[in-house]
Amino acid sequence: MKKVIAIDGPAGAGKSTLAKRVAQRLGYIYIDTGAMYRSVAWKVLQTFGSDNFTDEDIAAAAYNLTVALTYENGSQRIAVDGVDVSEAIRTPAVTSVVSRVAAIGQVREKMVDLQKKMAADGGVIMDGRDIASKVLPNADVKIFLTASIEERANRRYKELREKGFAVDLTKLQEEIAARDKADSEREESPLVQVPEAILLDTTNMNLNEAEAAIVKLVE
User: Fold this and answer.
1) How confident is the model at residue 129 (pLDDT cuts 50, 70, 90)?
2) Considering the chain, what percentage of its residues have pLDDT values greater than 70?
3) Fewer CB within 10 Å: N-end or C-end of the chain?
4) Are 13 and 152 in contact (CB under 8 A)?
């Protein structure tokens, strides 16, 4: 019987990358909750501009939003209202506002409802900030994935540089630290490690080692 796997952790810990790899290895469905919140953030920016919006605007943008996850040639694609935003949601502009968007109660209610429906039949792996505590409290396997701020910033720096973005490593470290604080202190579904979750620190692990560690925990 295939299990339901919940992976929580801070920004840049490698949750999405590892969840995708583990899903492919085990034949599970990967549900990228971070991409779903990024999709809302992208919609907000498209609708209201870089910073000219209120919390009410964010809730309104999410209300009638349609988010679709599909797989094409082994990779996940995400569409917002029928528009493919798979690359657009990974820009620094979206990253800069996604924590604020994800903190809005109406946004989280809509996304959590969608995520629970996606996981209803089992055989899924889902990552985010509140998966074990809020979205999938009855998950068979719960993992809290983390790494040092320095290592997470280095990973993000390399990723953005490879995509052609001009970024500053020190600023990335500051942004990740600020996002950790915002995610952990927000009133609505904060980032927490539930007592039953297994802590996995990947600071000194490569992708293959981290993937093997997660697969071992699942099996």
Assistant:
1) confident
2) 100
3) N
4) yes
- Which pLDDT score, from 0 to 100, does residue 50 have? 74
* DSSP secondary structure, the chain, as one string: ---EEEEE--TTSSHHHHHHHHHHHHTPEEEEHHHHHHHHHHHHHHHH-SS---HHHHHHHHHT--EEEEEETTEEEEEETTEE-TTGGGSHHHHHHHHHHHT-HHHHHHHHHHHHHHHTTS-EEEEESSIIIII-TT-SEEEEEE--HHHHHHHHHHHHHHTT----HHHHHHHHHHHHHHHHH-SSS-----TTSEEEE-TT--HHHHHHHHHHHH-
pLDDT at position 1: 75
Which tokens sit at 181? 């604080």
**Residues 76, 80, 83, 85, Cα dihedral to 10°:** -50
**pLDDT tens digits, 5-47:** 999 999 889 998 999 999 989 989 898 888 999 999 999 999 9
What the block records as the tokens of 32 is: 């990228």
